[in-house]
Amino acid sequence: MSISPAGWSYGDEHEVHMISRRDLLLGMVRRFRENSEEKPVSGIGADIVAADDAYARKDYETARNLYRDILKTNRAHKEARIYQGLCHYHLGEYIQAKDTLLMVVKTHPDEYLARLYLGLAYARRDLTEKCMDAWAGLVSPEHVFVMREINVQRALYEMGDSMAGPDIALAVEQAMAQGAEKMQSKA
Predict the structure, then answer these.
(1) I need a surface site. Which of 32, 94, 97, 157 has the fewest CB within 10 A?
(2) Closest to 142 (Cα-Cα) out of 116, 119, 104
(3) Hey, which residues does 2 pair with through a beta bridge?
(4) What is the pLDDT along the chain (187 residues), one digit of tens a residue?
(5) Burial level of 67, CB count in 10 A (0-12/13-18/19+)?
(6) 48 closest CA partner among 35, 63, 60
(7) Rounded to 5 degrees, what are φ and ψ at 48?
(8) How far apart are alpha carbons 123 and 173 in whole angstroms?
(9) What letter would DSSP give residue 159?
(10) How many other C-beta atoms are found inside a 10 Å radius of the C-beta of residue 185?
(11) Residue 168 contacts by C-beta under 8 Å, 6 or more apart in sequence?
């Protein structure tokens, strides 16, 4: 039996049968599955799970290294880059955190976590103006406590009455902890 490009099948005796779309699609899916089983899996899924687990355990050094390895394989992996930046931040590596998160913000300017921690990295280095620039227009209805604190800090900055950068970072981190506690109590 042979199949024409139009989806007609020709039997041995040149009988014409129409192949249904369903049969055609199922055949394509079957061939795809057969081909994909033969190819080795890259392992990036397992790597990201291991990195995420290390991050959840607050083993930031291990997580940072695992995210770095993922980025060697796939430089465009946005989540790995964001969490690598967060690991740098939690390890006190504020320059590396800034560099990593700035790469994300340049390509994904609306990425909440990257912009939040980019601002925090600037604040920790006492670069208040850059911190406020990173937070300009930052919006997240899910993070009320954090947004409220950022808006307070931005207002104080605009009035010329802002705290030192590390104190701003501490205030926002406390708001983050308060928001996390509130979320856990609702769960």
Answers:
(1) 32
(2) 116
(3) 10
(4) 555 555 544 455 555 455 666 665 666 656 655 554 443 334 467 789 999 999 999 999 999 999 999 999 999 999 999 999 999 999 999 999 999 999 999 999 999 999 999 999 999 999 999 999 999 999 999 999 999 999 999 999 999 999 999 999 999 999 999 988 887 777 6
(5) buried
(6) 63
(7) -70, -35
(8) 11
(9) T
(10) 7
(11) 123, 128, 131, 153, 162
Q: Is 152 exposed, middle or buried (0-12, 13-18, 19+ CB in 10 A)?
A: middle
| Alpha helices (H) in the chain, listed in sequence order | 21-38, 44-56, 60-73, 78-90, 94-107, 112-124, 128-135, 144-158, 165-186
Domain ranges of the chain: 2-38
- How open is the CA angle 109-61-51, to the nearest 5 degrees? 65
Gap between the Cα atoms of 176 and 149, Å rounded: 9
- Look up residue 78 and give its amino acid: K
Predicted model pTM: 0.75
How buried is 134 (Cβ within 10 angstroms: 0-12 exposed, 13-18 middle, 19+ buried)?
A: buried
Handedness of CA 117, 121, 127, 128 (dihedral sign): positive
CA distance 168 to 152: 10
